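Subject: sequence -> structure tokens, single chain

Hey, anyone have a minute? Need the predicted structure for the following. Not urgent.
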Amino acid sequence: MEKNELTFSCQISSRIDLSKILQFVEKMSQLNSYILIETSETTVNAKSLLGMCVFVARITSGGTALLRASGSDAEIALKDLKNLLLGRF
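Reply:
Had a minute. Here:
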């Protein structure tokens, strides 16, 4: 099983559209990997709509997040997570 981690500074807007979060969670749910986002305040499952809504509400632009993914498509999961947190999803 492939395991990947990525740490970087977030540039996500706290006012990200709910439909984008839903679209993102649906995409993550199609992947086989176990996907987590960790900050100093919280850890959420990227496949959880409620978890992602809480995460977006709490993250501040410039905050640091650790992305963890394990599974056969972990690299794809991390790429999509990074794009979301950089405001490019």
